[in-house]
Amino acid sequence: MELLQYGFMQRALLAALLIGLTAPAVGVYLVQRRLALIGDGMGHVALTGVGVGLVTRTSPIWTALGCAVVGAILIELLRTRGRTSSDVALAVLFYGGIAGGIVLVSQASGSTPTNLDAYLFGSITSTTTADLLAFGVLAAVVLLVTFGLSRVFFTVGADEEYARASGLPVLGLNITLAVMVAATVVVSMRVVGLLLVSALMIVPVAAAQRLRRGFTGTTTTAMAIGVAVSVGGVVVSYHADLPSGGTIVLAAIAVFLLAVVGSGLAAALRQPHREAEEHLHDHGPSCGHPTVVHGDHVDYVHHGHRHAPHGDHYDEH
SUPFAM superfamilies recorded for this chain (predicted)? Predict the structure, then answer.
């Protein structure tokens, strides 16, 4: 392929591969907790870190990571309070983050509007080898933590009160997940930009929920979609001379729409039966839900409903 002859495209494709794997792996927990837009807020805060890096002439990746991690911890602590004033405080934090970033970037030596656009909307072809190494380290940490703690992350997301009663450190786990989101935001900022980063964490997961049932199936399918749209978006943007970030996000939205139409047609063609509501939980012998023997199979009692496995979904019994 012609584009592989260029070093900047090799780095761009590797960066796209990394974000395609990591963003949905973190995003599945945000969807489960109904925090789909939290990535946007962290992106705003990370922009201040980019500005600090440009002004002090240090690597914007690491200063953005520092600001995003501090912001993630503050966001989680404010969210835990669960009061109306916390919403106002979060809004102030988000708006202050992006405003501080714009001001700091404008004061950096040699700053141009192009520099700001590169971080807001992505500039994957400007990824350097040092950027790629930093992204690789951060992506590896994010994947190791999200998969290593997947069971407890899922338990906390499904029922915080149950998790707390079981002795799990709920606040610590939520802060850990928030820090992983912050790291993913930093990895993504060169690929899709800080204003579009949340889309790559959420849209592949939303599409996967239409295609697969259960947490494991949804996660793996979302990661496959993430890789396909990220790498495919970079290739299309190269040949069509389009912005890579917007192309990747539009590709993800196209997959989501196809998944919605396809799953709707498949449901209409199935034998009539009543499907259970969508959820990311995999029922099984160790899932923790009470079981009821029903004829030749076992039903799982889920929020007062009896769910029976049927193909790639669950039926109401």
Answer: ABC transporter involved in vitamin B12 uptake, BtuC (SSF81345)
